[in-house]
Design goal:
By secondary structure, the chain is of the alpha/beta class. It folds into three domains: 188 residues, 3-Layer(aba) Sandwich (Rossmann fold), CATH 3.40.50.620; 128 residues, Methionyl-trna Synthetase, domain 2 (Beta Complex), CATH 2.170.220; 134 residues. The protein contains 15 helices and 21 strands. A five-stranded parallel beta sheet has the order 3-2-1-15-16, with helices on both faces. A four-stranded antiparallel beta sheet has the order 5-4-11-12, with no helix packed on it. Helix 4 packs across helix 7 and helix 12 runs antiparallel to helix 13. The longest helix has 25 residues. It is elongated. It catalyses: tRNA(Met) + L-methionine + ATP = L-methionyl-tRNA(Met) + AMP + diphosphate. Keywords: Aminoacyl-tRNA synthetase, ATP-binding, Ligase, Nucleotide-binding, Protein biosynthesis. This is Methionine--tRNA ligase. One of its GO terms (molecular function) is ATP binding. It comes from Pantoea rodasii.
């Protein structure tokens, strides 16, 4: 079971999104499928986010119109990039019912509490301003932050924690804090379960998320708002919260369950694939800025169901992917839309470059100049040299070849390939580097060797294609086998087109 957090449908996906969880999840899912292991990779769209409202206001359309438009664009982009999903959930009545079914037992068992809190309030608009409606200084790192969570340090800032809150919507005034009764989920009640859960993750998971958990657990865990007194979102069904909506972030787990349910053909309940009794394994691929929600609040909500549901075996976070050494920004127009990039060059090249430069443990950078140089000098030209050497080589007979003659190289190649793709050591960047390394090595071996045995080379070419096929899906799809010298199988390898020969194919279809 693989989940990439549903993106907010306030626009299409840009290259920064693709370099994060969506391509990473696809790489891991393709690897599992290649091993014959059952996979359910799913996502959807997060329509209840207040960012839809603020973006729709700027775009001059209704939030519902923006959701519909963006959801279609996001699905098209994922398809065009070759992100193969089992499930892509619509934001429909089934989705809304799933959210309520997940939360209702928690309410019935008094695990959700009413609480009087202070929230940012606009006296001019006469309404509460939460999440994307408010901006201020993070109480932990003092960076500018929207309500709910600081993207910079990853810490939450619920209720009245933001310093100097200001409205992000007209008339952009300074806000006051006003008291209101809402429903909350007391995350601190699950401290011991959370600590036990993370006890065996050190040295296994990526370090930044574990560092964040240490920081969070060093203080009392703040309550998580289940409802908000705003109008955009799923109406709250709980007594005492009339006129309020569910916090979009509380939808995370039932939404993910519904996404996975859309990936199977059955009439089973929306949460069946997540039941502990199934024995299924679960992994999240997500941006680091989502770590608090997915690694604390969502996890606690699963735990609150008292063992009914599986918990994630791995959370694989990524850092920010920058564009020309500055953060991707839709508001500033500092971005490259994901679909635009694959109008300029084949999606295989885009997938490969984003894998190689993936921001796995540190921020990394997208640069057009670097992309063209790396693709040309480290991928396209070496691969074409390998194809030329392979096609021109005079092969000797296969007689006398033993398993030991090729077994050690193949074993070493496969072990490293699988290490790059398994969750405990997952790295799409190392996978891309593995591809580069073996293209160069095999080209050198074939060019230098005289009368190499085809079995010696083809067994290694086969493993190389196995790894290439996870990233460069169109190239490998077009490689065929043919009967060669001495009746052995030879590969009909295809050359990669040079970037200079592509131009800008505005209507490029993968």
């Amino acid at each position: 079971m693989i989940i990439a957090p549903p993106p907010t449908p306030n626009g299409d996906l840009h290259v920064g999104h693709m370099a994060g969880p969506y391509l990473a999840g696809d790489i891991h899912a393709r690897y599992l499928r290649s091993k014959g292991r059952p996979v359910n990779y799913a996502t959807g769209t997060d329509d209840s986010q207040t960012y839809v409202v603020t973006s729709a206001l700027k775009a001059g359309m209704s939030p519902a119109e923006l959701c519909l438009k963006s959801s279609n664009e996001i699905k098209r982009t994922l398809d065009n990039w070759g992100v193969e999903l089992e499930g892509y959930a619509p934001f429909d009545e089934g989705y809304r019912k799933a959210v309520i079914k997940f939360l209702q037992p928690l309410f019935d068992n008094q695990k959700l509490k009413m609480k009087s809190v202070k929230l940012p309030y606009s006296e001019l608009r006469n309404e509460f301003m939460v999440e994307s409606y408010v901006s201020g200084e993070c109480p932990v790192c003092l960076a500018q932050s929207r309500g709910g969570l600081c993207e910079g340090c990853g810490h939450p800032n619920n209720f009245d924690q933001l310093k100097n809150p200001m409205s992000t919507m007209p008339p952009y005034e300074n806000l006051v804090y006003k008291e209101v009764d809402i429903m909350v989920f007391p995350v601190e009640d699950y401290r011991e379960k959370l600590l036990n859960y993370y006890a065996d993750k050190k040295g296994v998971w990526r370090p930044h998320i574990l560092q964040l958990m240490d920081e969070l657990f060093s203080h009392k865990l703040i309550d998580f708002p289940v409802t908000y007194p705003v109008t955009w979102g799923i109406p709250s069904p709980f007594p005492g919260t009339e006129g309020q909506v569910l916090n979009a972030w509380v939808e995370g787990m039932p939404a993910s369950m519904y996404c996975n349910a859309c990936g199977v053909s059955s009439d089973l309940e929306f949460d069946y694939e997540w039941l502990s009794s199934t024995g299924n394994k679960l992994a999240y691929f997500l941006g680091f800025d989502n770590s608090y929600f997915w690694g604390v609040t969502h996890l606690s909500l699963l735990m609150a169901h008292d063992g009914k549901y599986i918990l994630p075996d791995y959370i694989v976070p990524n850092e920010f992917y920058e564009l020309e050494n500055s953060k991707f920004s839709t508001s500033r127009g500092h971005l490259i839309w994901a679909n635009d990039l694959i109008k300029e060059l084949p999606r295989d090249y885009a997938r490969f470059y984003l894998c190689l430069t993936s921001p796995e443990n540190n921020r990394s950078n997208f640069s057009r100049a670097a992309m063209e140089k790396i693709l040309t000098e480290r991928l396209i030209e070496p691969w074409n040299a390998l194809v030329k050497a392979y096609s021109a080589h005079t092969w000797r007979q296969s007689v006398g070849v033993t398993g030991n003659e090729v077994g050690s190289e193949v074993k070493i190649m496969r072990e490293r390939l699988y290490d790059c793709c398994e969750l405990q050591s997952f790295s799409q960047s190392r996978l891309a580097d593995w591809i580069i390394s073996h293209i160069a090595r095999l080209e050198k071996m074939i060019s230098a060797g005289s009368g190499l045995n085809p079995h010696t080379v083809n067994s290694q070419i086969s493993v190389l294609l196995e790894g290439l096929g996870i990233v460069m899906i169109d190239l490998v799809e077009n490689i065929t086998e043919a009967t060669g010298h001495e009746g052995g199988i030879m590969f009909c390898l295809k050359q990669m087109p040079a970037l200079s020969s592509l131009g800008r194919a505005e209507n490029y279809v993968p």
